[in-house]
Write a structure and sequence with these properties.
The strands form 2 sheets. Strands 1, 2, 4, 5, 6, 7, 8, 9, 10 and 12 form a 10-stranded mixed sheet that branches. 28% of the residues lie in helices and 26% in strands. The chain is globular. The protein has one domain. By secondary structure, it is α/β, with parallel strands linked by helices.
Length: 200
């Protein structure tokens, strides 16, 4: 059932998001139980752009399967804010999901400075350019109900919640469930079944 769910995610996104290449293939489940999506090989786009579009699609769907405390996502709020640190180019890829509806709210994309306005974010993407600052960035998020998403080595080991990695030309993700619990977030068992799960 979880496999069908993820396939439905990607099929819907590949047909509804213009920014995603038409050659985006359906997700597969490896023997290790890690969900993955093949990085499309479209000549009109650079590998980095294609990879970021896939990650943006994943983040949109992650939101569907994460529950925030009421204080962090109160009834009546109009947006779910995905925040990107500084001038990270990933913000451009997130434009493909900006304005889409999830949890009866519009997706908003915000650029922020590290340590500022974090309480307004439901999701914070931390790009590889922040690798040296990662411990300080994670520390600045302590006590906040924020889903942290990254794309670098040791991201989940250092306290991040979801980390993307590419293996065999496929985008996959791992989840630190203990970090999610510390952030007060509840992750769907369906989402966990598709990830490489880390507990620390």
């Amino acid at each position: 059932m979880a496999v069908d769910l993820l396939n439905a995610w990607i099929l819907k996104l590949s047909t509804s998001l213009r920014a995603l290449p038409a050659v985006l293939r359906l997700a597969t489940i490896t023997g290790a139980g890690v969900a993955s999506v093949a990085v499309p090989n479209a000549q009109a786009q650079s590998p980095e752009v294609r990879e970021y579009q896939i990650k943006a699609a994943f983040i949109y769907n992650f939101i569907k399967f994460v529950d925030w405390p009421r204080d962090a996502l109160p009834e009546g709020s109009e947006t779910i804010n995905i925040c990107v640190l500084r001038d990270d180019p990933f913000a451009d890829a997130l434009e493909s999901i900006k304005g889409k509806t999830v949890k009866s709210r519009r997706v908003a994309v915000r650029r922020i400075e590290p340590g500022r306005d974090l309480e307004t974010c439901q999701v914070v993407f931390i790009g590889s350019s922040e690798g040296k600052r990662l411990p300080r960035v994670i520390e600045s998020l302590q006590g906040l109900n924020v889903l942290t998403v990254g794309e670098m080595d040791r991201f989940v080991e250092l306290g991040g919640i979801i980390n993307f990695f590419v293996q065999n030309n496929r985008v996959r993700f791992e989840i630190n469930v203990n970090s999610a619990e510390r952030a007060g977030l509840k992750l769907s068992s369906q989402l966990l079944s598709l990830a490489k799960v880390v507990r620390q």
